[in-house]
Fold:
Amino acid sequence: MAPQITELQAQLRRYATSQPADARAGTPSEDEAALTGQELRVFEAIYQSALEYAETSEGGLLPAPVAAALPILVQRGVVKMRPFNRVLDAITSCIKVAGTDRNSLCYWLGTSLVMLQEMQAADIGFSGDVELNGVIHPPPAPPPGSGATSCEYFLNQLIHHAYQTLVNDVANELQGLLEPAVFEQDIAIMQYDRPVRHSLARSFARVL
Amino acid sequence: MDHITQRLSTVLELFQRHQIPHKVRRQFFHQIAHFIVAYLLNQVLQRKALCTAHIGFQIKMSVSILDAWFLEHRRLIGNASYHMETLIQAANVLTLATNVEIFKTTESIESTFSRLSPAQIKKMIDLYHPDALAPEPLPPSVRSMVTKVAAFSNDTRLLLDSVLPLVEIDNVPHIDEED
Structure:
């Protein structure tokens, strides 16, 4: 198993098994226990999703398990800000562990985008529209305690980070390929003592 | 160029597999197309060795392959091909540098090279040198006219920022993406 996957699993396990500070201090209230239960289910979804994804060499599964879990819980008023932020922390960790593995990055970017889409559609106070606006530069941080606005802000930040990592990675790779492909290519059509390479000749004719 | 179009195809395939929304796909490929243009143009503007007619033709050939890929996938990625025109015009400066007619008036320069700033055109003409493909020296009238146009222009853009701001993608004209 790749070390990257082991680290991913370890991080998700830590998230999934950690307890809130107030719950550790004494007997948790019924609400607190329900909240922790829901929270664990969300992390379980992320964990399973990561595991199933990691084990599929062909490129992973759809981001449905994670994306579908959250809006329903938020809509029911079950998931509050604290666990939501911890879910985002978990996904942030997954994105960090993905590094420049494009398959993983695309998976978590897709997951975060679908999650944002679902929450925007769920009428729970999100104001943006990812289908219309796409990836946005995160707006100025909202005031503390502003609920859905903060959720949307942090989710947009996360999406922007994953997206920008992907853009930079692809741009870096292309940079290394462009120089030889454009400036050092062998254009036989312009070397009069050599036969014309037909594929290049066709391109050349198109440009002219 | 096949290596590059293969990489782009792989990324597009990943985007489809992971259900990245259409708008985000468009943003991504616009940014990558802009990056390619900015990188290549900045190289030309900074390296005298690249300012020849031969390199101009090489750029045009390479762009034609990239452009064909962008056009082939326009239904999925939008009008990313739009960005290529800047590079085609830069290549035209190099391949047409000795053509006095193109550089005869301010209007003909501005209309032929509408996507380039006068400062960029002047820089390429300043660095231009004859090669085996176009051995004629640069006509003095070309250099003086380009210098004049640059002197009277407020547009002093030279090197392009390789990062396209996300907000600018919305300013790119749409083409019929359903064709």
